Input
Amino acid sequence: MKWEPVECKSGDMVRIRLGALYHYGIFVSEDEVIQFGLPPTAENRAGEGEVKVIATDIDTFACGCIVETACLDKAEKKRRIPNAETVSRARARIGESGYNIIHNNCEHFVNECVFGEAHCTQEEDVRKRWLNRPICDIYLAEIPENAQGEIYPDRRRAEIEGISDAKKRNEQRFLWLLLTHAAKRSFDTDVQSAELKRKLGGRWVSGKFWFSAAVCGKIAALAISNSEVSLTLGDSPSGRGVSRTLRDPKVTVTAEGKHCASVKYFWAEGDSSTLMGGRYFE
Output
């Protein structure tokens, strides 16, 4: 299969290049290109909700890039599904969700419509890029009066229960519960498998990720990253990281580390998290 910037027919596979990756669709007409999600540009990500199979016009699909058409070889032409049926298959899937950047993406979608088999030539590259993408998530939450939940490992639980000051004991218990939630939300990792251990000097670390925690008044915060990270609440920014100031209560949140430019802020409540928009910050 070769890709050329040539005229496309209804039922053809088309693609555009976005950096090192490609976005794929099924061309029907200038007014209809069926694709699994919009091209992953910064503008589209800003308003991103659940990714679904959609139809857009060719300009929206192209987003200013050159559109290439799949030019099939003889063997591929023999095994491809007829163009009209390809279009019918693609249209029948409009509204479908279940997008997964590694296992069920836009290239899987077009190959299934054209050849009847979900396939992605970019899968290994996508997998590596996805697993190695910069992650630096900050979870903020109000400390409850009596934090309840399982603390793992046993050594950490014993440390926390051994704190004589009831307020500090409750704060540390809640921070560890926040770590449990963050590990699952950001890295899909249970604390039981996070390779948690206590270093000399008393600091706890993980073999799966880096984390840093802080408390200011009734607010607890935890930063979790795939690179070394530090977090402060209420202190003056050092100038080496990124900082945002909460509106209510007014608390400055400062993160430092290799991936601090990729910070996402979440408000954690119970077992759920809400991605915080600008309305939460000054």
Q: What stands out?
A: The CA atoms of residues 183 and 275 lie 16 Å apart. The helical segments are 42-46, 58-62, 74-79, 83-92, 106-115, 123-131, 154-161, 166-187.
